[in-house]
Design a protein that fits this description.
Elements (H helix, E strand, L loop, with lengths): L6 E7 L12 E5 L6 E4 L6 E3 L10 E5 L5 E5 L4 E3 L2 E3 L5 E3 L4 E7 L5 E12 L9 H14 L1
Parallel strand pairs: 3-4
Antiparallel strand pairs: 1-2, 1-11, 3-5, 5-6, 6-9, 7-8, 7-10, 10-11
Amino acid sequence: MDAYPRHRLRLLPLSNNAHAFEFTPEERNFVPNTEPIAIGSGETFKHVSFGCSKLARTHARVWCDDMGDFFISPEADGAEMNGKTLAARQSYELRDGSDISFAVRDVNGENLAPVKMRIAIDLGSPSSESGASSDAESEKAAVKAV
């Protein structure tokens, strides 16, 4: 049995704007207080890569603390959360439903289609299960709430 809770972070494309960069939803599992993942154009195991060569290799880092709170630290300028500019190399708490946007500029400094996403956070509990049953329970609860 796994002694550490695993929390899931999903990055869902926000396509309410025809000018946003499109991507496939990304999902990562986190064990609290472990190495952050990088978000950008780089391609490594712990990286969420959007395949956009104009996005910084590491545009931001995301991690989870021991309380299950998620944080983001932009490594490049042009990051926004819920419409507010985020300063590079500062930490900001992510909440379920937060909207994140990364500005993308070409070599001439012209703005290209930004990468826009909605954050979905699922907090886990110590378990060796894959989480499939908790996903089904969450979906049932969502249907009941409607």
